[in-house]
Each structure stands twice: as structure tokens, then as C-alpha cells.
Amino acid sequence: MSQNQAAPVTVSDCEVMASVDEDDAGEQLVIAEICRDEAYLTMPTETTVAVDDWR
What we know:
By secondary structure, this protein is mainly beta. Helices cover 7% and strands 38% of the residues.
């Protein structure tokens, strides 16, 4: 039986940060890789799950 192994990944020294931002659309969770331009994602906080709920 063969093993399904992941390919090696090079890890950069870049940091990832998250914050909650409020705009006209309401509260948004923003996750961004701060060393690259346009490397972020956003989602409404009402669709997120608290960390304690994942445990």
C-alpha cells in the first residue's frame, strides 16, 4: 500500500495577522500575510466560529 505524502514546502519569514475591521458592510474578519501586497482574505464575522467552539 502506498503512502500519500505531502510535497515539501518552503517556509518564508513572513508573518500572518488577523483582525476584526468594521466598515459599511459590518464587522469583517481580515487575515493577511503582511510581507506581500494583496495577500489577504476577509469574511463577515457572523460566519466565523470562535476558537473555543472548535475544540
